[in-house]
Write a structure and sequence with these properties.
By secondary structure, this protein is mainly beta. It is built from two helices and 33 strands. Strand 25 and strand 26 form a beta hairpin. The protein is elongated and about 85 Å long.
Length: 436
């Protein structure tokens, strides 16, 4: 542990620490473990990246012994013991610079002024904060689930509206966001999803309709796996490929009810280093959408199709408690998304096979659910307002289908997506269409 005299300013999240002149700064570096109480005297500073591990019955890890002491605890630091400021002292400051996906319940005593930079200067400043990774990414995961599901419907919708035979689609997708400068509300995460969609006609004479069932699982890792969430999502409902037909085009519609089961595991930094809290809850969803497509033959075998569509998705998440520390109030999320899409398809002679490419522009916006509320040990409510409530995507897709038997066609496609907020999404689909 090195001590040195500096003139310094530390930028952390949304603000800047005060400038301290002719003061001693002690740093516990990343990967370093110290086993003695870190005393911070008047006008001096302690910066912690590593571990302070104090043994004993009621250990004190950090002790401010004079006025205007400054302590900064950074993301990844482990503190075994309490953080103490003597009664009667003034202007002792504790700056918490964790990633927004990190959770911490620190044991602080005395007249500290606590500033939680990790989530946009929450109030009250208590040093007891739940990582908001799963809540901040909820709209991204909702958009991913509906995007994957909608892509599994795409080849069915590309068939003539009077098509009346069973079909299915199997898919796999990944979504990720790397670390960026805005750690205050954007944690790095990655998620892997896989799903199965099955459809069968229930009406094909006057107004073609399919009954559709979907199951999808997601495994999301947030902030270097400090928060893990497993989703199991079910959709069931009706797809109407020919809601309205006109010369050269048609309008399709869909209506689905969903159930989403969440299983979360959260690492919480506390005065024992860290512990694990579990959260199990469920949510209900409704998905409704319309799509219009218009097609024209460029040549006898090359077809250009233009699509536009919109979806409205609502998710209702019930109030739930985790096994340690945190409880989350009911949250209703309403999302509107839209797309513009161009598709170019080549149809081989005798319709034996076809291949296509697609370019899409997509956008979503949160209409509600921009705020969420939680409590720590039943105490004061913490309200978080998201700063990213919308996003724009570009999607590229390539696919092909082939008649493998007289009564069955297999199709496959690959998709790549990127958003304005640095989210990458890749997915693949394999489907089967039975001839009607």
């Amino acid at each position: 542990m090195n001590k040195h005299y500096v003139l310094y300013a530390i930028t952390a999240g949304l603000g800047m620490l005060p400038m301290v002149t002719n003061a001693t700064t002690t740093t516990v570096a990343a990967g370093t473990t110290v086993t003695s109480t870190q005393n911070v005297s008047a006008n001096n500073s302690l910066i912690v990246f590593g571990t302070i591990n104090i043994s004993g019955g009621s250990p004190t890890a950090i002790h401010a012994t004079g006025n205007s002491a400054t302590v900064t605890i950074n993301d990844g630091a482990l503190i075994y013991g309490s953080i103490v400021s003597n009664n009667g002292q003034t202007n002792d400051r504790l700056y918490l610079n964790y990633n927004s996906g990190s959770s911490y319940v620190l044991n602080t005593t005395g007249p500290w002024t606590i500033v939680d930079y990790s989530q946009g200067l929450q109030t009250p400043q208590t040093g007891k904060v739940a990582g908001i990774g799963a809540q901040e990414t909820a709209d991204k995961m909702m958009f991913q689930r509906t995007t994957l599901f909608n892509s599994s419907l795409a080849e069915r919708l590309a068939q003539p509206s009077g098509f009346a035979a069973p079909w299915m689609s199997i898919y796999h997708g990944t979504i990720s966001r790397s670390t960026n400068s805005n750690i205050t509300q954007e944690s790095p995460f990655n998620s892997t999803a896989r799903g199965l969609t099955i459809g069968a006609p229930i009406e094909h004479t006057y107004n073609p309709m399919d009954f559709v069932f979907n199951i999808q699982t997601d495994h999301e890792k947030i902030a270097e796996s400090r928060h893990l969430v497993k989703f199991t999502n079910f959709f069931a409902g009706v797809l109407a490929p020919g809601l309205y037909d006109y010369v050269g085009g048609r309008v399709s519609g869909k209506l689905f009810i969903g159930f989403n089961k969440h299983d979360g595991t959260r690492t919480v930094f506390n005065d024992s280093g860290s512990t694990t809290s579990l959260g199990k809850y469920h949510s209900l969803l409704v998905l409704a959408g319309l799509e219009e497509r218009w097609s024209m033959n460029i040549t006898k075998k090359i077809i250009w199709t233009f699509l536009t569509g919109a979806d409205l998705v609502e998710e209702h998440q019930k109030w739930h408690y985790e096994t340690l520390y945190f409880s989350w109030k009911t949250r209703r999320t309403l999302m509107l998304s839209g797309k513009l899409e161009g598709n170019l398809r080549y149809q081989a002679p005798e319709n034996l096979w076809s291949a296509w490419g697609t370019v899409s522009l997509m956008k979503y916006k949160l209409l509600s659910g921009k705020r969420f509320i939680y409590q720590v040990n039943g105490g004061a409510e913490n309200t978080i307002a998201l700063n990213n409530k919308r996003d724009n995507y570009i999607k590229l897709q390539a696919g092909a289908d082939y008649d493998v038997l007289s009564f069955m066609k297999i199709n496959a496609s690959l998709e790549w997506m990127r958003s304005r907020h640095h989210i990458h999404q890749c997915q693949g689909h394999i489907g089967i269409m039975f001839d009607d």
